Amino acid sequence: MSWAGPDDVFLSTSLATYLDKKILVLLRDGRKLLGLLRSFDQFANVVLEGACERIIVGDLYCDIPLGLYVIRGENVVLIGELVHCFVYCSVRLDSL
């Protein structure tokens, strides 16, 4: 039996596609943790490297550094990859 590589699980729901990528983890108590996904198991226990807790108040946010963080799977509500998209829009002055 051969094991699936990262290319084989591209369209699957496996966390293997997120390994070594920056992710956001939403916890059951409402906290939001960001960090590099280093490891996971079948119970959604995850290890984040360079983790920080993001606190959002209105339009402002603050990141509190936590370091290496192990999260128990029963506390995980959502895991998603963080993709930084920069949208540039140009406004013509004569259109205002």
Automatic annotation (TrEMBL):
InterPro entries: Lsm1, LSM_dom_sf, PTHR15588, Sm, Sm_dom_euk/arc. Keywords: Cytoplasm, mRNA processing, Ribonucleoprotein, RNA-binding. PROSITE patterns: SM. It is found in: Cytoplasm; Cytoplasm, P-body. Pfam families: LSM. Residues 10-85 form the Sm domain. Transmembrane segments: none annotated. The keyword Cytoplasm applies. One of its GO terms (molecular function) is mRNA binding. The keyword RNA-binding applies. One of its GO terms (cellular component) is Lsm1-7-Pat1 complex. One of its GO terms (biological process) is deadenylation-dependent decapping of nuclear-transcribed mRNA. Component of the cytoplasmic LSM1-LSM7 complex which is involved in mRNA degradation. Belongs to the snRNP Sm proteins family. Component of the heptameric LSM1-LSM7 complex that forms a seven-membered ring structure with a donut shape. This is U6 snRNA-associated Sm-like protein LSm1. It comes from Citrus clementina (Clementine). The gene is LSM1.
